[in-house]
Write a structure and sequence with these properties.
- With about 350 residues, the chain is mainly beta.
- It has one domain: Beta Barrel (Porin).
- It is about 10% helix and about 60% strand.
- The protein contains three helices and 17 strands.
- The chain has a 16-stranded antiparallel barrel.
- About 30% of the residues are buried.
């Protein structure tokens, strides 16, 4: 019955949107081939995979009310990534409800999956996503956002479930309300654009999950300069999460530089991530370091090829053997917007 209702709602939105302002589609596919050093049995891992398959229908009910949702097949798993309604009142004040990129998700919000400079995001941002209870950098809640100072200042404030996939369904017909992983998180972001191509800002997030007495907090800052052929990025993220009396702190930073030469763009990124405040994590690693060398080839507006080689150098805990895990990737991406 629930599936039937979802299907009815889905097609009702599409039909209504067709009668209003129309419906459009975005999407992409990313096919990888990778070869990775493997410490276990000296047996390297290699092969093809579908990393991302995305489809995003979107449209409008009127000039001031937009809607959209996105489904994906990421890492061999089907997901509902986005579903939202966006009320566009003015440039300086808008409301958005649903599931979408959290204001704190710098790499999720500022650099979408279809415009990644390298094949993968930095480990820092991937691990940060895991430690904050987000789902693919997305949260479920309500957001106020807008632009001030003639578009030079962007702000966003969001309240969301502390875990994006949490279940909280009170109902008068039930004897016991469903409240698994209940709690709230707050996200805030500011970004300044003082001149064409230059953007800098920061974010802060905090939340508490009542069921498990889990607390999360994180903050970060970034400065990007992206103009013409030049692509420069510097980003820092830190935070902590605690369960009861056990607290884990983490931080990391990356610096990226790219330069377009006709259809080619060489890119280099240096990054580190400290997962446990200087202590070894579950893999025996105290600090992750990597240098990524890549080249992007923009075959057309819709097709992009990427090749990356990642040199990884971990600092291991006492008495733990070093990990062999350098990686070579090739990515073929097709994207569309109708």
């Amino acid at each position: 019955m629930k599936r039937f209702c979802v299907i009815v709602i889905f097609f009702s939105i599409i039909v209504f949107s067709l009668k209003a302002e129309g419906i459009k589609f975005k999407g992409l596919s990313q096919i990888w081939f990778s070869v990775a050093d493997q410490a276990i049995d000296n047996n390297d891992a290699y092969g093809f995979t579908i990393r991302r398959l995305r489809l995003k229908p979107y449209g409008s009910f009127s000039k001031d009310i937009k809607w959209g949702f996105q489904v994906g097949w990421d890492k061999q798993e089907a997901k509902l990534l986005d579903v939202y309604i966006d009320f566009i009142f003015k440039k300086n004040f808008n409301l958005k409800f649903g599931k979408f990129a959290a204001p704190g998700a710098m790499s999720g919000t500022l650099t979408s999956s279809g415009r990644l400079d390298l094949i993968e995001r930095s480990m820092m941002t991937q691990m940060w996503n895991r430690n904050t209870g987000l789902d693919s950098y997305r949260a479920l809640g309500a957001q106020v956002y807008g632009e001030l100072l003639k578009g030079k200042l962007y702000y966003a404030l969001m309240v969301s479930n502390v875990r994006t996939n949490a279940i909280f369904t009170p109902s008068v017909k039930n004897t016991y309300h469903t409240h698994k992983n209940n709690g709230l998180a707050m996200w805030a972001r500011l970004e300044v654009t003082p001149m064409d191509g230059l953007r800098f800002g920061g974010f802060y997030g905090k939340g508490k999950e009542k069921d498990t007495n889990t607390n999360i907090s994180s903050y970060g800052a970034h400065i990007f300069y992206i103009k013409d052929r030049i692509n420069l990025k510097l980003e820092y993220i830190a935070g902590e999460y605690s369960v009861g009396d056990l607290t884990t702190k983490y931080d990391g930073v990356y610096a990226l530089a790219g330069y377009k030469i006709k259809k080619f763009e060489p890119v280099i990124r240096c990054a580190f991530y400290a997962p446990n405040d200087g202590e070894a994590d579950e893999y025996g690693v105290k600090k992750y370091r990597d240098i990524s060398f890549g080249v992007n080839y923009f075959y057309s507006k819709r097709i992009k090829f990427q090749a990356n080689y990642v040199i990884r150098d971990e600092s291991m805990g006492s008495g733990i053997d070093k990990i062999a895990n350098n990686i070579f990737y090739i990515n073929c991406q097709y994207s569309f917007n109708y």
